[in-house]
């Protein structure tokens, strides 16, 4: 049936799914995302495949992502950050109520519709628990936004997403992620010791204090404490 609506398509070449683990991960992503309906989660419309590809049809977000906005603006104002983070928290609360951890929250996975409302997307690393006191052991995520417990043998849970939101808030205000290091290993060390970098924009240094305070309020010195 013809429609005048615009959708986004995620196309995965089957030849890239060479390992069983990759096939299982894609299946899990579809199973987790398909039933989710919330004003701050990218809508899932359909999925199908042909001989060469698997297609996931998603809500189109014409405002692109917070990362695109950050690249264009470098830093956002505190009121703008308050507005965006509030909507991110609403979306993440919905996911957690469904026993889902996103595990890869970052500006590039937070999209904007034509009215500049938040839409959380990309559930490729998400997992769903059977009970709220379960813990996951997989080492995954984007280094600059990973919670420290994701690097430990203790496992991680819902609080890992909250830590990531604190990092996003800091990044939007200051212009760079809070624990960004010259090397990935440096970033991991900074996260474990909660050592903030000093490479933020000189324009936004006046916001460094509020950004640190806000990030700590959301994520805490350690997301599991």
Account of the 3D structure:
With 225 residues, the protein is of the alpha+beta class. It folds into 2 domains: 7-59, Phosphorylase Kinase, domain 1; 66-219, Orthogonal Bundle (Transferase(Phosphotransferase), domain 1). Helix content is 36%, strand content 13%. The protein has 6 helices and 7 strands, in the order βαββααββββααα. A 3-stranded antiparallel β-sheet has the order 1-3-2, with no helix packed on it. A two-stranded antiparallel sheet has the order 4-7. A hairpin with a 3-residue loop joins β2 (44-49) and β3. α3 packs antiparallel against α4 (159-174) and α4 (159-174) runs antiparallel to α6 (208-219). The N and C termini lie far apart (52 Å). Keywords: ATP-binding, Kinase, Nucleotide-binding, Serine/threonine-protein kinase, Transferase.
Outline:
By secondary structure, this protein is α+β, with helices and mostly antiparallel strands. It folds into 2 domains: 7-59, Phosphorylase Kinase, domain 1 (2-Layer Sandwich); 66-219, Transferase(Phosphotransferase) domain 1 (Transferase(Phosphotransferase), domain 1).
